[in-house]
Write a structure and sequence with these properties.
This protein is of the alpha/beta class. It has 21 helices and twelve strands. It folds into four domains: 162 residues, P-loop containing nucleotide triphosphate hydrolases (Rossmann fold); 51 residues, no CATH class; 97 residues, Orthogonal Bundle (Arc Repressor Mutant, subunit A); 99 residues, Trna Endonuclease, Chain: A, domain 1, CATH 3.40.1350.
Length: 453
């Protein structure tokens, strides 16, 4: 698959490369696996001299042998004696950068925690002493979010405060997903939504599906729910290292959230544990879940729900992890039947996020969220507010748009509207078919105004 999107990220990386012409620059590029971090770094560096080093799980001395071969391939430099420590590799590269600007990409940087944790303090000392006189454009890449956060954002760690930029790479936007599927001949909104819902905009997943002619939803299911599918073990592969020995509890919590049990009380009722510490880590340290509150909620409000930020992981926990016994016995027909039965319910919640993202991308509103009252009463799928223009959109979202009753929506919004006296209010019914106009014309022109107060 060709390189898509990332114009803003490429521009920022180009700025940092320019900065390295006068003194060293350090960039941290993080984000979950499969989001395209390595590809982005290599794309940014392809027009100038660069060195790519991958930190694999092997002895430090063996890594150094591998790195010396790479250095000799790129640079004409004599290496005297045997180098067994990464600090000496880094020292050599710092010396080379005094006379020649180049980019050094170090991938899976967090792996030094298991190889030799002293590397981080050694690099800190070398960087602090030599940054001003080097021309090194340094890019650290890492996929284990908790460890990369610890290395660069924990005040107790040696590399805290050293990075010029910390860039968290996000999945593709809906517009970029649409560009990808267009290139493979699919232009309909239902296919766009399926690609968004199941892949979450992860470039690697889109590439896998595209290369296997599996972009429409039925073909996606054919590819995902079969023996040897790369998607079957993906959730485990991504998260086991993050969670360590507590992975069972974290997986159980994520399974419940994916199944629609989004309140802490619901999770604790099933698992019979205090889930607060786990949910806090899932939100902060691991960046896997988010809390959302009603759009008018006061700070500190306990009226909140949790959701899995990553669409694919939500799909994986709902349909694959939940049916792990069937996966292990190879009963893929059973899993497929469950997925066909329950997909619409699961996808209905993702459809709300789909429209939240579309409205956010329009730039027309400063606040976007949903609304509900205590006891989950008067739930409203989307509330978009422009406080400057004093405009508010209140929308119901359904897979089958014809089932929306706007008169009922107005009743549910009665208390909400009282909070926004003086605002013009529009009530809208939204279905997948509305996405095309939203993509091309924005939220103001892209939706029919169904009612107005």
């Amino acid at each position: 698959m060709k390189f898509y999107n990332r114009e803003n990220e490429l521009a920022e990386l180009a700025t940092l490369y320019d900065q390295a012409s006068s003194s060293g620059s350090m960039t941290v590029l993080t984000g979950r696996r499969r989001v395209g971090k390595t590809l982005l770094a290599l794309e940014s560096a392809k027009q100038h001299k660069h060195l790519y080093l991958f930190v694999s799980k092997k002895a430090e001395a063996l890594l150094c042998q591998e790195y010396i071969e790479e250095i000799r391939r790129i640079f004409t430099v004599p290496v005297i004696g045997e180098i067994r420590h990464f600090r000496d590799i880094f020292k050599l590269l710092i010396e080379l950068s005094r006379t020649e600007r180049f980019t050094l990409i170090i991938d899976e940087f967090q792996e030094f925690f298991s190889i030799n944790p002293a590397v981080y303090s050694e690099l800190q000392g070398l960087w602090d002493r030599n940054k001003a006189t080097s021309k090194l454009n340094l890019i650290f890449i890492g996929s284990v979010h908790s460890l990369m956060y610890r290395i660069f954002q924990d005040a107790k760690e040696p590399l805290f405060g050293r990075a010029d930029r910390i860039m968290f790479l996000k999945p593709f936007s809906i517009k970029s997903i649409f560009t990808v599927i267009n290139d493979y001949g699919y232009k309909d909104m239902q296919t766009l939504f399926s690609a968004y819902a199941i892949t979450g905009g992860l470039p690697k997943y889109l590439e896998l599906l595209a290369e296997n002619s599996a972009i429409p939803r039925q073909q996606m299911f054919d590819f995902i729910f079969r023996q040897y599918s790369p998607f079957l073990t993906e959730g485990k592969n991504l998260l086991i290292e993050e969670f360590g020995r507590d992975h069972g509890t974290y997986f159980s919590i994520l399974e419940l959230i994916a199944a629609g049990k989004t309140a802490r009380s619901e999770i604790e009722a099933v698992l019979e544990i205090h889930s607060g510490a786990y949910l806090s880590k899932l939100e902060g340290e691991y960046a896997l879940v988010d809390r959302h509150r009603p759009i008018d909620a006061k700070p500190g409000s306990r009226l909140q729900k949790y959701y899995i930020r990553d669409n694919f992981l939500s799909f994986w926990f709902r349909f694959i992890y939940k049916n792990l016994s069937a996966v292990e016995t190879g009963n893929f027909a059973y899993i497929r039947e469950i997925a066909e039965r329950d997909y619409a319910t699961w996808a209905g919640r993702i459809l709300e996020r789909f429209f939240h993202d579309l409205y956010a991308a329009s730039g027309e509103y400063n606040r976007i969220g949903s609304y509900w009252e205590r006891g989950n009463k008067n739930e409203i799928d989307l509330v978009a507010i422009n406080d400057l223009k004093k405009e508010i959109v209140i929308a119901e979202i359904k897979v089958n748009k014809s089932r929306i009753n706007l008169a009922e929506l107005e009743k549910k919004a009665k208390n909400l509207c009282l909070e926004y006296k003086g605002y013009s209010v529009e009530f809208r019914a939204l279905g997948v078919e509305d996405a095309e106009l939203l993509l091309t014309e924005g939220c103001t022109r892209g939706c029919t105004i169904n009612n107005k107060n």
